[in-house]
Amino acid sequence: MTALISLKDVTKTFFNDGFAVEVLHGVSLDIEAGEFVAIIGQSGSGKSTLMNILGCLDQPTSGEYRIDGEPVSDFETDELAALRRRTFGFVFQSYNLIPTASARENVEVPAIYAGLPARERQERADMLLSSLKLGDRLDHRPNQLSGGQQQRVSIARALMNGGRVILADEPTGALDSQSGEEVMALLRRMHEDGHTIILITHSREVAEAADRLIEIRDGRIISDRAKKARTASEAAAGLQKAVKEGSAAIADVSEAVKMAIRALHANLFRTVLTLLGIVIGVGSVVAMLAIGTGAQNSVLDRISAMGSNVLLVRPSMANFRGGGSAPVTLIPSDADAILELPNVSFAVPEMTSSVTLRYGNIDYQTTANGTVPAFTQAKNWKVAAGEFLNADDMNTYAPVAVLGQTVAKTLFPDGASPLGHYVLVNKIPFQVIGVMAEMGASAGGNDQDDTILVPLSTGSMRLFGQRNVRTITVQVEDSAAIDLTQDAIQTLLDTRHKAEDTQITNMSSVREAFTETSNTMKLFLGCVAAISLLVGGIGVMNIMLVSVRERTREIGVRMATGARRRDILLQFLIEALVVSAIGGAIGVGLGLSIGALAKVLGMPVSFTIGPVALAFACSFLTGLVFGYLPARNASHLQPAVALGAD
Q: How far apart are CA 126 and CA 136, in angstroms?
């Protein structure tokens, strides 16, 4: 009959700083199904190394190891994990329970990697714990259980997938005598149910509970004594695997997410510091792009409102070398001359100056703008009440004015209509004939409604004391010929002034230049936010590296219960992604809140799904990239080494 476990001339050599240390020396051993075997030896005898090889937690350096006649000495890592999952159950001296998980969740671990659905594994875990008199402790964490209760949870975990072979490593070593006796009674009962029990101990008294004693010393078996004749166990032959395997990968990703949240909650302060970089980065992306896009759209809307076929003529400072203000050379007749050129719809001259208004007992300082009737068409600015300036006002030097909304509300705070009333402008009475519609702030943040509009002729003679104009706004009929018209205007003015003392701005060029500058600025702000995300990513990597170090033993337990490398890799990657997703969600909320606050304060803000999705995706990508190295390190740990970590 083929032995369940068979070792032949097995050796194990460890290498330390280039020195080879052979721990096992040609061990040969057969264990039948259903046996209760105790392997006894003092510290350093090699019994723990032998147990690791028997449980497929480590591989022999040489020799042959067979289970059910199948050679497993040369199995790959994932093949060994599958073998542990379907064959072995482990009971450890230090229990090796996951501290942040409940008793039920600890028992469920082997079934997770066997692919058992969540509901079925919960029911089986409850049944096993209840059978071990822990039915009232299902939701208790390890630190809420006594040593004996923790060991019973460990036994239930060993039985979760059936536990055809139970490897018990010093199962009573950390228990008081009564709890130790209870655990040994449980092992005896499991043996009677058909489980093959391999007990590793240094205590001869504990070993005497077994039916067969194997003593090891200095890496060699020195005695193998059966207390009774070996007989095939009918219970062992009939023992069936309790859990039918599904997918060997983690069957329920929600388990990994729950584990991640438990780990984060266990180190809350450290987690908050780690999330800070991601929160700032994502929040910056959302807020900066919302405010930047809003400002860009606001300016572009105003430029578009003026039309893409608009030219602005201003005095040039290119040849100005004197001190003080640049000379102003444009005059109203320049606008009349421009209007005579082909492809010109209108030419609107303007001159401005700071003035003091008075109505009743209210004094107010604002800007007076001397202009012409075509002003409303040039600026795409409508009259809300009354009428605008006309040709008669220009020709008769009429003292009439049109108020901007801010001026109207300041001088007439009671809501009365300003129409027909006289307002003193620098002590000169002007009759209000109209009120402009509200325009809001300009691209530079100036209040466009804070102005009073008067006829250019009247303002030049009675308010400004000059005949030069500040700008001339020109609209062309055919935008396709705007460049030719611009050249014609420039030639006309150079000829009239006998000097190159003016400059012309094409609004379509302004729009393109502004768009390019705005996009560059948004790119710069995005780079700043990306640096924050980079810092956050490094924080994620650090916390995950620390987490791997702190939870090395837990990783060993998961591998002992059947987790493959990709299971561990996926587990820690999901943890990194959860950290980044939480940080990303908080960052998005923070960015939206900042944007909303800016909007309340009057800043132009534009919320779109693109930046939000981009920022959240970047945080997710950060977790994936920076979480990979720690996850890979965790997945490449050797089970025996991980279980032996302090």
A: 10
Report residue 629's pLDDT band, with 50, 70 and 90 as the boundaries: confident
Residue 564 tokens, joined: 């493959």
**18: phi then psi, degrees, rounded to nearest 5:** 85, -5
30 conformational bin, left if phi > 0, alpha if psi -120 to 50, beta if neither: beta
**In angstroms, what CA-CA distances link 427 with 161, 359, 450, 462, 539?**
98, 10, 19, 11, 67
Nearest to 75 by CA among 55, 93, 91: 55
pLDDT number for residue 237: 55
Q: Directed axis angle between helix 507-550 and helix 552-560, to 10°?
A: 80
Half-sphere CA count of 26, side-chain side, radius 13 A: 1
Closest CA to 315 of 329, 325, 302: 329
The pTM of the whole model exceeds 0.70: no
Q: What is the residue type of 473?
A: T
Q: How many CB atoms sit inside 10 A of residue 414's CB? A: 4
User: What does residue 339 show for φ and ψ, rounded to 5 degrees?
Assistant: -65, -25
> Residue 479 has what DSSP assignment?
G
C-alpha–C-alpha distance, residues 215 and 222, integer Å = 6
Geometric angle at alpha carbon 224, from 221 and 227, rounded to 5°: 155
Q: Are 314 and 470 in contact (CB under 8 A)?
A: yes
The residue written with tokens 């300036």 in the block is 389
Distance CA 534, CA 644 (A): 35
Q: Are 555 and 634 in contact (CB under 8 A)?
A: yes
pLDDT at 43 over 90: no
Q: Which residues pair with 473 in a beta bridge?
A: 312, 348
Rounded-to-integer distance, Cα 147 and Cα 432, Å: 93
Model confidence at 646: pLDDT above 60:
no
Portion of the chain with pLDDT greater than 70, in percent: 89
- Alpha-carbon dihedral sign for residues 112, 115, 121, 124: negative
pLDDT for res 126: 94
Determine the residue type at 505: T
Which residue, 358, 352, 355, 398, is CA-closest to 371? 352
Amino acid at 229: A
CB atoms within 10 A of CB 632: 15
Q: What structural domains and CATH numbers belong to the chain?
A: 5-247 (3.40.50.300), 265-300+512-643 (no CATH), 328-500 (no CATH)
- Please, are residues 209 and 188 in contact by the beta-carbon 8 Å criterion? yes
CA distance 587 to 620: 12
What is the token pair recorded at 384? 């809300």
Tell me the per-residue pLDDT of 538-577, one tens digit each, with 9 for 90 and over: 777 877 788 788 888 888 888 888 888 888 888 888 888 8
Report d(CA 346, CA 380) in Å as an integer: 13
